[in-house]
Each structure stands twice: as C-alpha cells, then as structure tokens.
Amino acid sequence: MTIKGIIPASWRLLILFMITGLLRGCIKENLDDCRTHCILHVRAFDATGTELTSNEVSSVALYLFDDNKRLTGTLQTQIGQHVKIEPRMGENIHIVAWGNLGENTLPKLDENYEDCTINIRQRTRAEVYAIPPDDLFQGMISIHASQKREEKELPVYRKVGSLTLTARNLKEFAGFQDDDYTVVIRETYSSIHFNGTLTGQKVSYLPDGRFVSSDGREYYYVAPFTMIPEETGLYIDIYYQEELIMSIGEDGQGKPITVREGMLTHVLLDFNRLWDITVVLSEWDDQYNYDKEF
Questions:
Q1: What does each C-alpha distance from 283 to 209, 225, 259, 265, 280 come to in angstroms?
Q2: Which of helix, strand or coil describes residue 224?
Q3: Nearest Cα to Cα of residue 236 among 214, 213, 259
Q4: pLDDT for res 86
Q5: d(CA 257, CA 249)
Q6: Which residues of the chain have pLDDT under 70?
Q7: What is the Cα–Cα distance from 187 to 198, expressed in whole angstroms?
C-alpha cells in the first residue's frame, strides 16, 4: 500500500509546505551559528591623538585582502558609519583603509597586496613636479575567522605633511624689483605603499607663491600645501625667472628642513638678517605668529 492511497492530496501538500519551512528555518539558523562577521567602525585621529570628524575625513575606502595577500573586494564608508564585514567561513580578512582619496591621488590596485600603492599626480616641465596630494589618512586591521559578531575599531591617521614659507626682503637681496619669483621644494617620494611606507620615484613641488603686504612690509608667501613627508631633509630653491637665486637645505642652526606626517612646517626667511632661516613645526592648522621671529 502506498502513501498516496492513505493521505489525501490536500494533506500531502500541507505536509510538504511544513517540511520545507522547517528545512529553511534550520538552514538559516545553522548559517547564523557558523558565519563569521563583525561590525567595523572607522575613526580618524590627528598627530596629537585628537579625534576628527567627517568634516576632516569626508570619505573612506576599504580594501579587503585574504591570507594570500590577494585583493578580494572594496567597500566605501564614512567616519562614524558602521560597516558589516563578512569574510568567507573559516578565512581571515585583512583591511587597508584610505581616507580622502580624491582627484590628486591615484590608487594603483593589483591582485597582490605587495603591489598596491597610492600615487600622487604629477605634471612635467624640465623635471617632474608633483601636484600636492589630497589630505590622506590610512589605517590597517586584520579580522580573524574566530572573531564572530564582534565590533572592531579601525583607526586612521594622516599620512601627509604640509609646508608654508614666508620670505622677507627677497627683492632687496636678489636685486630684481618685479614679482617674477618662484619656489621649488625638492624632493619627496611620489607614492605611499598600502602598508604606509614611502615608495616610488623622487619628485619636486612647484607651489603657488605671491608677494603680499602687511603693516607696510612686503614679503613673499607660500600658503600651506600638502606634501608626501620627508624627514631626512628637503631643499628650497628660490628662482627669479629661470635664474637660481639661492638653495636652502638647513635652518639657522644647521638642522635639515623636514616635513612630518600630520604636522605643518613653517619656513621663515629674512634676507635682511644675514640669511636668517627659522623652521618651526606646529600642529596641522596652527597659524604661526611670524612677528615673534621678524
């Protein structure tokens, strides 16, 4: 005797629906028990440890790598936003975050982590000049397969520095009274590896500068602009048209001129005081009081 002969068709259909529902419920429940995922929260900090907001870091790109250092995916998020990260079952995931990637930086992505870099844009004259990079932030974290349903914090920190220059009595020193002066800052690396180290070729910067007046005194001024950090020493070349007027690589105490991550370097020159050269490092947004030095 068969089941078909005992159970009416309507009952057989109802039993089939009930069994299907139970199977679906069990599968879903089992997946929740076994799946690895965590909630990631990206936070940004400056060089002093002060927390920043989305006003300073407007966007964050997350690059996901597996244990074999292969790029497996990318996600977009923001400061203060929570992101659910779900690695494949039993696998670890390694995340590199970059903040403020914009039009002045070019991510070079490869299948392998070792070949991934962030490159700054360049323009070419007689030599290569770099366009000031975006205000970049970077951070890394690894999420292990055993860490289920955890909340994790991914801190990111500023990876660029900044420089500003003020030069008084430049025209009197150089002997040319028009405004056709330029400044070249050299040299820094052109790229940042995904692990945060500097790489690439060496490049120089040609920042915008102008003569301004304050309290009846005229001086040449370069507003703060971002750079790849260089802590071993920079050179500042001052030109009138195509003629090199002077090249500066040290302050008045013989120390190299440097640019550090998350810091603003103020270079103060007074050509009326035996080439007085003062270099001051400050926090990112500090406005240095030049009258203390001049």
A1: 22, 14, 12, 9, 10
A2: strand
A3: 259
A4: 80
A5: 6
A6: 1-36, 124-127, 147-148, 273-275, 289-294
A7: 13
